[in-house]
Structures are given as structure tokens and as C-alpha cells.
Design a protein that fits this description.
Elements: H1 3-27, H2 33-58, H3 64-89, H4 91-94, H5 104-126
Helix pairs in contact: 1-2, 2-3, 3-5
Length: 128
């Protein structure tokens, strides 16, 4: 088991629950419906990848190098994708123009895709 990967999964899961509750109970009356829906998308993808990291952290068949490479793409993807969405969707209440980071969202999505692709490649390479 890789404790760093597993621990990051726990942290992202815990933070996802907290942000989801904050969105549902603290932001629903102050954000427009579209902004709240975007915020929820960020939380959902963060939670998916928190679970992904828990599984990856417990997985013992892949080498540590492969796991660390996948971990890099997934953690980078979550930080860029979900966190840029959190900032962008709360612009109306913070009064801060986060438009400059809007390009980070698709870049984060690309990193998430690359993490999944790399995992698939490593699994099929290792087990074939």
C-alpha cells in the first residue's frame, strides 16, 4: 500500500464531502443555479478521483513508479479541474474575477484523462 496516495484519497474525499455540504447548504441561496451546478460538478469529479486514489493506493500489482506517475496526473488534474471550477463558480460572491484561470479547467480535465489512460496502459502492459 502507498500511504501517500491513499492519504491523498482520504483528504480529497473529506474535502469533497465538506465542499459538497458547503455548496448544498451555504451556497444554494447565494449562487445562481448554473454556478451551483458547476460547483457540484467540481465536487463530483473530486470525489470520483478521491475513490480512484484510494484504490490506486491499495493496489499492489503495479510498480511504485507507475503508481506515482498516475498519481501525479490525477492529483494535478483534480487541483486544476475541480479547484478552478470552485473559484470560477463563486466569482459572483467573492467579487474576484477568476476568468484568467478558466483555461486551467480543460487542462485539468486533460490531466485526469491522461491519468486514466496511463493507468490502463500500465495495467495492460503489466498483465500481458
Amino acid at each position: 500500500m502507498n500511504k501517500t496516495i491513499f492519504g491523498t484519497g482520504i483528504f480529497f474525499g473529506l474535502l469533497g464531502i465538506a465542499l459538497g455540504a458547503f455548496g448544498a447548504h451555504g451556497l444554494e441561496k447565494v449562487l445562481e443555479a448554473d454556478a451551483l451546478k458547476s460547483f457540484e460538478t467540481g465536487v463530483r469529479y473530486q470525489m470520483y478521483h478521491a475513490l480512484f486514489l484510494l484504490v490506486l493506493g491499495m493496489e499492489n500489482q503495479l510498480g511504485q513508479t507507475a503508481k506515482k506517475q498516475v498519481f501525479f496526473f490525477i492529483i494535478s488534474g483534480v487541483l486544476l479541474f475541480s479547484f478552478s471550477i470552485y473559484f470560477l463558480s463563486t466569482e459572483a460572491i467573492t467579487g474576484i474575477d477568476f476568468g484568467i484561470i478558466a483555461l486551467l479547467t480543460p487542462l485539468g480535465g486533460l490531466f485526469l484523462i491522461l491519468g486514466w489512460l496511463l493507468l490502463g496502459y500500465r495495467v495492460f502492459k503489466h498483465f500481458s
